[in-house]
Amino acid sequence: MSTKRLELKLRKFFNIPKKGENYEFRSGLVSQYADERKDTIQRVIAAMTVGKDVSALFPDVLKNIATHDLEQKKLVYLYLMNYAKTHPELVVLATNTFMRDSEDPNPLIRALAIRTMGCIRVEKMVDYITIPLKRTLRDDNPYVRKTAVICVAKLFELNPTVCMEQGFLNILVELIDDPNQMVVANTVASLLEISKITQKDVLKMDSKVLSKLLSILNECSEWGRISILSSLVSYDATSLSEVHEILEKISPQLQHENPAVVLTTIKVLIKQLGKLPENERENALTRLSSPLCSLLTSAPEIQYVALKNIRILLEKYPNILEKEIRAFFIRYNDPLYLKLEKLEVMVRIANESNCMLLISEFREYSMGVEVDLVNRAIEGISQIAIKIEECSKKVVEILYELFINRSEFVVEELVIVAQHILRRYPKEYLSTLITIIADLNFDDLNKSAALSSYIWILGEYSKEIPHLEDKLSVIVSSFEDFEPLVQVTTLNSLVKISLTKPTPTIMSLLQTTLDKSTKNVENADVRDKAFLYWRLLSTEDKILQKDIILTKLPILKTTIEMFPPGLLEELLESLGNLSSVFYKPASSFISVDQKENTFFTSSDLQTKKLEDLEQIAKNEIVNNAVKADNLLDFGNDDLGDNSNEQENSNDVLEELNELFAVLNNPSTSKDSASTLSNNELLNVFGHITSEMDKPRAESKNDDILNLF
Fold first, then answer.
1. Is 279 domain-assigned?
2. What positions does the domain Clathrin/coatomer adaptor adaptin-like N-terminal occupy (predicted)?
């Protein structure tokens, strides 16, 4: 194969621009001018922050680590922290610089070095971090110490065995007595993190530690206060005087501008309330209303988290916000998710003194244009009526008014709440609610929940419904198209009606429904229920049938969702955390098994299939050749008009195979390229200046040409 033919095939296969962004970055990183190298590093970091993959520049960025420019050093360290996992074998080459920087006279550089070593999540770094970490934990400068204590938690997560063998946990416990409040706060945060990992109480709280933490609380930063307050949540006061001391010291934090500080303070206060006498407990609870309401003046996202936490508090202490109901009224510019959450809170605050005000407010919401808000407002009106009997009559009047001015989505929600109210007041408002149901047609309803409620009312109050048989005929004709929920409700209602109003038409509809349920329906629950009814109705004991089927349901006490007692206590201890937003224990969505963290090592490659490894090798060859294309100055004079023609992918692959078939010893060339790259990188740490003066492009050009 001639040289020109080879050049033609390369040019046709690698049809890309000669220069790209990475090529420019690489050229700038090896520039002989320091300003140009620094500017290029800044551009690389900018590309990294917007999500571009610049990991291929790792060796070139690493060459710039040895510098006295603090700004450039920070940028290089930031790059290393982000891409260390992609090049674990190369990042170890920077350890000498880290070790040297950890002894630098400048405390900023010492702290930067130990912080970066802690953030590099590579197992090989563990062997190098222990000595500088011990030294920085005893550093004279508090800024270095406060950085080092956080690094202990990172090391423990990476390798707990080394952390315990080197005595780092004991050093942390000693640092709680540090004279600097920043160091103490970070030490507490580190110990709390280790406690979460080990599921053990590493932070041994006693009266001495308690006094120390309370004394520095007001001197710490806002995040330091959160760490200290979080540590107080797990402390069990040994006496009433200790409870009073805790409440006195933490109460000023309720006025803090950071919502996280406020919520964490409330969490500590709630934990200590159980140890107070009844009269003192009520006084302590009154302190919570103002801070909680102040959270509702924050950004919508913060308000949402606050409302989620308020729901938890209201379930434990339902009267703490009864006088602040107006703070939860919906504003016109609130986002929908915030409006819905405010409705959830208001129905829980409702009591005899404010129910009429709430009903009037909900009535206004139910006449809006947002479908979700209108439906939730109608549901909230019914929840208040079920919860408070005094306002039930007013609620039914409002529901009837909404029915008169009805729209489709309002009607469906009205049917659902009508069922709930009839479950709570079976006879008091029957005439009004039956009027709503009697005027409805089956075609007015689309939601499964509304259909199910409608059919339930037909079965429960069959004697009051006019044209019952016509309504049931339409329902039975569409039986197979229903969701399982509606099918089961239809079965229940037809069986009830067959016992209370056994006309020939009703019995025929029941027989048809049972046939469809047992023969055509795939859902096992519906089939089993149909067989159960069939066998029950086959018996001759009518009294037994009525005793089983016509048994009255218990009176509905509430439709407001409540937390199980165990979950409620766990959520109260998690105020301000994700658990309080998801209403789930942290263990249900966060794994505590730290061994799940994996790192890319050579052993990972052994588990891959052979074809995967071949594909990786091919991709590597292609990538290297693409980079080399920028160095080869092939001419285009001989390409002719055919250079613009596009060939199909099979022809291109065949040409590529033919191209590499002429290579005499590709493995040797690959080793040569690898050796050259590694030698460049290793030499840089011995003599950086001389390396910068080398004509890098020429060496790569020679390397590529040797390949052929």
1. no
2. 21-540
Q: Give the angle subtended at the CA of 223 by the CAs of 219 and 226, to the nearest 5°.
A: 90
Q: What is the spatial distance between Cα 181 and Cα 189, in angstroms, rounded to a whole number?
A: 12
Same domain for 457 and 545, yes or no, is yes
Cβ 407 vs Cβ 446: under 8 Å: no
The answer to whether the pTM exceeds 0.90 is: no
465 & 506 share domain: yes
Residue type present at position 108: L
Tell me which residue range forms the domain holding 506.
Answer: 447-559
From 192, 260, 258, 246, select the one nearest 217 (Cα to Cα): 246
CA distance 338 to 326: 15
Instruction: Establish if 206 belongs to a structural domain.
Output: no
Q: Would residue 705 count as lying in a domain?
A: no
Query: Phi and psi (nearest 5°) for 592?
Result: -95, -5
Residue 179 lies in a domain: no
Say which residue the tokens 């009903």 belong to. 359
* Pair (536, 569) in one structural domain: no
Chunked into runs of 10 residues, the chain (708 residues) has average pLDDT values of: 60 54 84 89 91 87 87 91 85 87 92 92 87 92 94 91 90 92 94 88 87 92 93 87 90 92 93 85 87 92 95 92 92 94 95 92 91 94 93 91 81 92 90 85 85 92 88 91 93 92 91 92 92 89 86 88 92 90 87 44 40 53 46 38 42 45 41 42 40 39 36
Number of domains in the chain: 2
CA 688 – CA 425 distance, rounded (Å): 86
- Extract the tokens encoding 84: 């260390």
Q: Are residues 535 and 576 in the same domain?
A: no
Half-sphere exposure of 220 (CA within 13 A, CB side): 28
